[in-house]
Amino acid sequence: MKLLYRAALTALVFATLSACQHTDNNPTSNVTEVSNPDSAVAQQLASKALESNLAYELVESLTVEVGPRLAGTEKDLLAVQWAMDKLNALGFDKVYKEAVQVPVWHRGIAQATITAPFEQPLVITALGGSIATPEGGIHAPIVRFDSLDALKQASREQVAGKIVFIDHKTHRHKSGKGYVITVGGRSRGAISAAEKGAVAIVIRSIGTDSDRMAHTGMMRYKEGIAKIPAAAMSNPDADLINAMLKRDTNITMSLTLSSENQGFATSYNVIAEVTGSSKPDEVVLIGAHLDSWDEGTGAIDDGAGVAIVTAAAKLIQDLPQKPARTIRVVLYAAEEVGLVGGKTYAKDHADELEKHYIAAESDFGAGKIYQLDLRVNPAVFEQVQQLHTSVSTLGVALGNNQASGGPDVSMLPRLGVPVASLRQDGSDYFDYHHTPNDTLDKIVPESLAQNVAVYAHFAYIMAQSNINLRPIAKKQ
Amino acid sequence: MKLLYRAALTALVFATLSACQHTDNNPTSNVTEVSNPDSAVAQQLASKALESNLAYELVESLTVEVGPRLAGTEKDLLAVQWAMDKLNALGFDKVYKEAVQVPVWHRGIAQATITAPFEQPLVITALGGSIATPEGGIHAPIVRFDSLDALKQASREQVAGKIVFIDHKTHRHKSGKGYVITVGGRSRGAISAAEKGAVAIVIRSIGTDSDRMAHTGMMRYKEGIAKIPAAAMSNPDADLINAMLKRDTNITMSLTLSSENQGFATSYNVIAEVTGSSKPDEVVLIGAHLDSWDEGTGAIDDGAGVAIVTAAAKLIQDLPQKPARTIRVVLYAAEEVGLVGGKTYAKDHADELEKHYIAAESDFGAGKIYQLDLRVNPAVFEQVQQLHTSVSTLGVALGNNQASGGPDVSMLPRLGVPVASLRQDGSDYFDYHHTPNDTLDKIVPESLAQNVAVYAHFAYIMAQSNINLRPIAKKQ
Question: Which structural domains are found in chain A, ordered by start?
Answer without folding.
Answer: 19-104+264-464 (3.40.630.10), 108-258 (3.50.30.30)
